[in-house]
Every structure is written in structure tokens, then in C-alpha cells.
Amino acid sequence: MSAVAPDRLTPPMAMARLFALPGGSMRIRVEDIKASPKTLRYTEDVDDLNARLGSGVRDYHLERGPDVTVDYYRSGLDIFFHGSLGGEVVGTCARCLEDYAFALDHPFVFVLTPRAAATDDSAQLRADDLALSYYEGDEIDLTPLVHEQLILALPTRPLCGEACRGLCPRCGANLNDGACGCPPAPADPRLAVLHALRGK
Length: 200
Ligand SMILES: [Zn+2]
Ligand SMILES: [Zn+2]
What we know:
6-stranded mixed beta sheet, 3-stranded antiparallel beta sheet
């Protein structure tokens, strides 16, 4: 994890007092969050993120941690985060099983409200229509929130391309490289009807 040098920050935003903990989480002290926005730029630890992406089937991984830029400020008890995360993601295509890389540039907004204040109806109402989460204690760990945003930004099913032809079910050849020579599978009559309807 690395924060950029202060001279790359745009005035009048100030560098936040922040600290990285072992294990690669990015934390901000709640007392340092004011009504005037501060900007934070850093790179998330890639190992933590890949560990999270890798639970279950490994559809995606990153070679290096995503770059995060986030403005944060307080409004009453709520803390707002407006930012974006970017980086290169490697997906493993669900059809042809080949790795393919794509750029991710994902804007995000989320709001944190103190857990103690979240029991009333108004908080519940807002939770329904805003990206609203809770914080408690004297610091906010951005890392799980950023991980969540990144996972939300990924397609549910990795495909190297919409037109990916996948693998031959008989010989396993990658059909994107050309026909494999296996006899064609018998046509599904239901699909034939669909094609006839579409192809007019
Ligand atoms: Zn593919
Ligand atoms: Zn084949």
C-alpha cells in the first residue's frame, strides 16, 4: 500500500492523517473527518483483494492493487465517500477458460452512518435507497468497502467477449481458434424456432 506524495494532491484538499495497518487495510480516524472534503489517494493491497476474489471459483484476480481516489466529508453524523477505483483486472472466461485482461474504472458513492443512530425509522428508510452502511468506533476501515465496490463493478459472469465460442464439448478445443473438426452437435429444435422468429 502506498499513499502518493503530498505535492500531487490538488489544493485546497489536504492530505488526511491516515495510517496503514499490517494486513493492508486503509483506515481513517473519524475525528479527522470534517465538513470540508479531504482527498485520499492510495493503492489497495492486492493480496487481500485476491484472497477475497478467490473464495469459491476464481473468476477474477488483479496483478496489482487497484488505485483508489476518494473524497470524504461529514454532514451531521453521516460520512460521505465519493470516489473511483481503477486498475487492470484479469478475468477467466467462463466459456473458453482463457485469461483476459480489462480495465476497470468504477465511480462509487457510499454513506456511513453511526450504528448507534441507525435504529430509527429514518435511517432504515435511507438504507433502502442509498448505499448506506454503518460505522462504529473511532476509525473507518475503507478496505472492505472498496473491496465491495470493486466486486459490485465486476460482471457477474466473466466472458472474454460476447462472441466467445467456448470450448468444444467433445474434444475441448478452443473454438475461438477455429473449428476443431468434430461433427456438429445435433440442433435443438427449440432453438431453431427461436432463430426463425429472430431471423425474419
Ligand atoms: Zn472466452
Ligand atoms: Zn471438437
